[in-house]
Amino acid sequence: MIRGGVVTGMCVTHDSGGIDDIAAASPESQAAGVETLLSAPSVEEAFVLSTCNRTEAYVVTGEPAEGLAVLRAFFADVDMDVVVQMHHDESLVHLLRVATGLESVILGEDQIIGQVRTAYEDAREAGGIGHLLELAVTKAIRVGERARTETAINEGVVSLGSAAVRLAEREHRLEGETVLVVGAGEMGQLAARNLADAGVESVLLANRTVENAGHVLAGIDAPGEPLPLEALPEAASKAGVIVAATGRDDPLIEPDHLGEREQVVVDLGQPRDVRPGVADVDGVTLYDLDDLEDITAETREQRADAARDVEAMIDREYERLCEQYKRARADEVIAAMYESAERVKQCELETALSRLEGDDAFTDEQREVVAAMADSLVGQLLAPPTQSLREAAAEDDWSTINTALQLFDPEFGPDEISVASQFTGTPDVSVGATDDD
């Protein structure tokens, strides 16, 4: 039986909702999200991507309606007005766009490609990656890598960390300043590195694990001091610029930590790392992820030409992905046909040999000659239908494939071929697509 399945996706992103919406949609972890999706009986494969700017979930089910139902339950805590629903084709194209950075706050930013790789590994370890998502996600990763090496999509501001520094520079002189970074994760590392490159006097880096903070500071070109999170109140009062990026559940920066001087605070946390009331403190300017849209507008203009090149690349690679699915489907159909023929051939061969041998047993050489003849007959007889099936898959002729499968496997019916046609992202005109298509 050939493998069926159709991809359905849903997401909450910086384009569709705000920071709090994304936080409400975020699972405990990407792996936990995959496990939750897989617990639904109808889900065969699952993939979850959760970052500060997006929470996305994809499932493979037998029918689109099943996938939509599972994903609606997954996003039950979110206002559905900010949830974007994607059917098969849309899901595949969206994955390619995400990995290339076309859907990022900062057009073409580099961080997302690593986040997609991590999400893929998390989903694979959780058992969520099967044949369909393996092709889709790995294709997205490869296209994302090509976009960055073959176009200028990532020139200029390439991460939220660098955008945060650019934003802070507009309000505060960085050269010779003491700055504070909260969080030693990837976002915090990028912010610390960009602040050091901007010529700050020193970088204070507060983190739950002080050792990790020290390791990050060892890799930047500026004096630094690692601190525990308990030292935040004092450290925040010293810093002219604060960039927070931890992703903890509760805010770490409070209004009473600030206000003794002019300060710029950039909150990259998802959920928020900075209490919103900080914006009301005299002398303090607070920015969050929603505010980064302004700083990224310039980058979008600079990268407009490169984006068009990436769009064309995505169009080509999406077509190639569909061709991969079609070839895989045709190969599975052909394999089912050969397996059926092999069973018949083996049974008839054994019957014929047992009748011919009688009292005089065939030699091994004679048995091999007869078996080779049987193999040759099967191969020659199946060669034309093999070619026809490959051509039928390429042309989305599922009626021909359905007929072939029913000839070799009477238990294979219209329901399975409907799923098979959806798998390629093309409408099934022979049996009728569902309303959810």
UniProtKB/TrEMBL annotation:
Positions contributing to substrate binding: 51-54, 104, 109-111, 115
* Pfam families, A to Z: GlutR_dimer, GlutR_N, Shikimate_DH
Q: Does the keyword Cell inner membrane apply?
A: no
- EC code: 1.2.1.70
Q: What CDD domains does its record include?
A: NAD_bind_Glutamyl_tRNA_reduct (cd05213)
The GO terms describing molecular function are: glutamyl-tRNA reductase activity; NADP binding
Q: Report the InterPro entries cross-referenced here.
A: 4pyrrol_synth_GluRdtase, 4pyrrol_synth_GluRdtase_dimer, 4pyrrol_synth_GluRdtase_N, GluRdtase_CS, GluRdtase_dimer_dom_sf, GluRdtase_N_sf, NAD(P)-bd_dom_sf, Shikm_DH/Glu-tRNA_Rdtase
Q: Which residues form the Quinate/shikimate 5-dehydrogenase/glutamyl-tRNA reductase domain?
A: 167-295
Catalytic site positions: 52
Give residue ranges for domain Tetrapyrrole biosynthesis glutamyl-tRNA reductase dimerisation.
Answer: 310-409
Name the residues that span the membrane. Answer: none
Give, as one word, the top-level EC class. oxidoreductase
Q: Where is this site: Important for activity?
A: 94
Q: Which residues form the Glutamyl-tRNA reductase N-terminal domain?
A: 24-151
Q: Which UniProt keywords apply?
A: NADP, Oxidoreductase, Porphyrin biosynthesis
Residues given in the record as NADP(+) binding sites: 183-188
Xref: SUPFAM superfamilies: Glutamyl tRNA-reductase catalytic, N-terminal domain (SSF69742), Glutamyl tRNA-reductase dimerization domain (SSF69075), NAD(P)-binding Rossmann-fold domains (SSF51735)
Which stretches of sequence are listed as region Disordered? 418-437
Task: Output the HAMAP family linked to this UniProt entry.
Answer: Glu_tRNA_reductase
Q: Read off the NCBIfam families from this record.
A: hemA
Family, according to the entry, reads as follows:
Belongs to the glutamyl-tRNA reductase family.
What this protein is called in its record is: Glutamyl-tRNA reductase
- Name of encoding gene: hemA
